[in-house]
Amino acid sequence: LPAMGEPSMDPSISAADSTAQQDSLFSMMDVFLISLITGLFTYWFFFRKKKEEVPELPKMQSVVAPVRDSSFIEKMKKTGRNIVVFYGSQTGTAEEFANRLSKDAHRYGLRGMAADPEEYDLSDLSRLSEIDKSLAVFCMATYGEGDPTDNAQDFYDWLQEADADLSGLRFAVFGLGNKTYEHFNAMGKYVDKRLEELGAQRIFELGLGDDDGNLEEDFITWREQFWPAVCEHFGVEATGEESSIRQYELVVHTDVNMNKVYTGEMGRLKSYENQKPPFDAKNPFLAQVTENRKLNEGGERHLMHLELDISNSKIRYESGDHVAVYPANDSSLVNQIGEILGTDLDTVMSLNNLDEESNKKHPFPCPTSYRTALTYYLDITNPPRTNVLYELAQYATDAGEQERLRKMASSAAEGKALYLSWVVEARRNILAILQDMPSLRPPIDHLCELLPRLQARYYSIASSSKVHPNSIHICAVTVEYKTKTGRLNKGVATSWLKSKVPEQKGSSSLVPMYVRKSQFRLPFKPSTPVIMIGPGTGVAPFIGFIQERAWLKQQGKEVGETVLYYGCRSEREDYLYREELARFQKEGVLTQLNVAFSRDQAEKVYVQHLLKKNKEHVWKLVNEGMAHIYVCGDARNMARDVQNTFYEIVSEFGNMSQPQAVDYVKKLMTKGRYSLDVWS
FAD-binding FR-type domain: from which residue to which, for each copy (predicted)? Predict the structure, then answer.
């Protein structure tokens, strides 16, 4: 401004000395113009400044960005840690195991930290040797068809592409898998093998946990041999008896602004009141239930069809995707825990991590009330793991009960057997344990610290977005059974979904949800034949598939053969979507409908029996028609039996030996022509 202002003085001086009116006029004009320009510039300067301040606000978001902590090496050096336990976790179990291992380290004069690989730069593994007595442990769950969990995807991609020299790295891997699945513990096996290929030194053998058996026992057995191997490698010894170490401290809020208190949100405070896309696991969408009807006509079970309204959510889905829902625990169970522990459940509190350097500040969103934590954030219905029993034992005032708890948490054969029979097989949840051990009355805050997080439940979507762009359909069966102790246990999510009243105002009709993408996809070409095998609620994704094929046909596309193999117990009891399937068949979209009623005759008939019956047609579709095969439902028996049936059909009509037939089917899987969406 001064630079522009200085020349403006000259015309005004010359005007005073001059008698020429024209000069005076021009000088006045100059002054006027310069004043105008100066005024405009001044206005622009301040206006511009305000504008420039706006983009600075998002910089506050950098607080949640993982960039500042991307080096786990620097964090370990800063906090004096030498053991890092990475976890690839989809349901929270691998994270729980990682926390237990990192907590164990102090017993051996070492310091551990559990770490989410998504938050760090894993290429720093090559620098871990800079830390004395350093070790990297990996608790890796396998998800879906041999895939990494969502939070381990980047780590998996890096391992595949990495050309790093990890010769200074010492490591151990514990895998979490399920033997009923085709690719048992694929992720654990891959990480173990790949780290060795990159030059890292394995200090203890790969552990393979099987969730179809007893995952907790597999972990304990591995862990009790793992630590002695660590001691031997580093020349350290256990420092003494195991001791209970609290990870969080309790802060009770007596005078708190209730607008700052979490009431069930998964991430952002008040996110359920002020919904903002995109919607995901940390920011679920509250969908209105517009329909909730019973599908079966008889029998003991309750099978239901729900429709969730996703209008205005910008949520997109495809046939074959999964919908995840966040359920709530039964209020009567929550109230009983409060009564037994003599606690005011509406007390507002926070559990703050004693380790100030930890990325995980709280075990669940805080501040919140005990009631909210036990209702929305904590798993109170599954049998607790042994580490929970061990930590709780100190609060049992009866010596016999305390000894029993410690024994079940021990690695002794007798203790493992007792835990298996008294907790796992009897399906005792935390409430049942408190009821059956009258002297066990732990502080509720320590109980809340120990219980695992309540996880989202996944369902195969039973609709096509081409036909239902603004709604997602769910097909589910309520889980309800009597335990060995005579208690009635109910499935958390299905009981909660069953209670949802369509279109009713308030939370009674709202479901927090998000969509998880799947590889379970219809062929790219509509003319490709499809063979769908889905008994029970396994029919769900195929309702979406058939809807989509019908829509494609309406668009004038050539649609290939659409064959369904469906099974249920009885035609009169639980034949799901009977009318819809009959209509699709009448319209010519569903070219073949094969239904197995397992209990309507003396000998049980299942879907695999119908496949054998139609083996020639099946082989023709697969071999000549290049058909895609889809299997959805129970992994333990059905999926395995169906796969064995395909081996037999391929062997018979393809003139192949059993190993050749197996290889043929495996190649179909590799090419994406044999897809599974199964659960155990």
Answer: 282-523
Choose among 213, 301, 145: nearest CA to 678: 145
Q: Which of 184, 170, 105 is nearest to 140 (CA)?
A: 184
What average pLDDT does the structure give for the chain? 89
Among this protein's residues, is 227 annotated catalytic? no
463-489 confidence digits (pLDDT tens): 999 999 999 999 999 999 999 999 999
Task: Identify whether 679 is a catalytic site residue.
Answer: yes
Please tell me which residue in 192, 321, 634, 677 is annotated as part of the active site.
Answer: 677
3-state secondary structure of 520: coil
Is 263 exposed, middle or buried, given 0-12, 13-18 or 19+ CB atoms closer than 10 A? middle
pTM of structure: 0.86
Task: Pick the catalytic residue from 422, 463, 632, 651.
Answer: 632
And the tokens for 544?
Answer: 């979406």
pLDDT digits (tens, 9 = 90+) for 286-302: 999 999 999 998 888 99
Whether the CB-CB separation of 611 and 641 falls below 8 Å is answered with: no
Percentage with pLDDT > 70 across the chain: 89
Per the CB < 8 A criterion, the answer to whether 643 and 653 are in contact is: no
**Least-confidence region, from 207-216, 243-252, 479-488, 656-665:** 243-252
Could you confirm whether 165 is annotated as catalytic? no
Quote the tokens at residue 464. Answer: 């096509």
> What pairing do the DSSP bridges indicate for beta strands 348-353 and 368-369?
antiparallel
What separation, in Å, do the N-terminal and C-terminal C-alpha atoms of the chain show? 76
599 pLDDT more than 90: no
Domains of the chain: residue spans and CATH: 72-234 (3.40.50.360), 249-264+276-450 (1.20.990.10), 530-678 (3.40.50.80)
Query: Is the peptide bond between 442 and the residue preceding it cis, with omega within 30 degrees of 0?
Result: no
Residues 6+ apart with CB under 8 A from 50: none
Distance between CA 94 and CA 98 in Å, rounded?
6
Q: By the 8 A CB rule, do 333 and 381 touch?
A: yes
Residue 621's Cβ-side half-sphere holds a number of Cα atoms within 13 Å equal to 26
Place of tokens 């039973």: 462
Helix ranges (DSSP H) in 54-141: 72-79, 93-104
pLDDT at 651 exceeding the cut of 50: yes
Q: What pLDDT does residue 244 have?
A: 67
Among residues 271, 460, 651, 675, the one annotated as catalytic is 460
Integer Cα distance of 605 and 598 in angstroms = 5
Residue 677 is a catalytic residue: yes
Alpha-helical regions (H) of 105-163: 153-161
**pLDDT tens digits, one per residue of 522-540:** 999 999 999 999 999 999 9
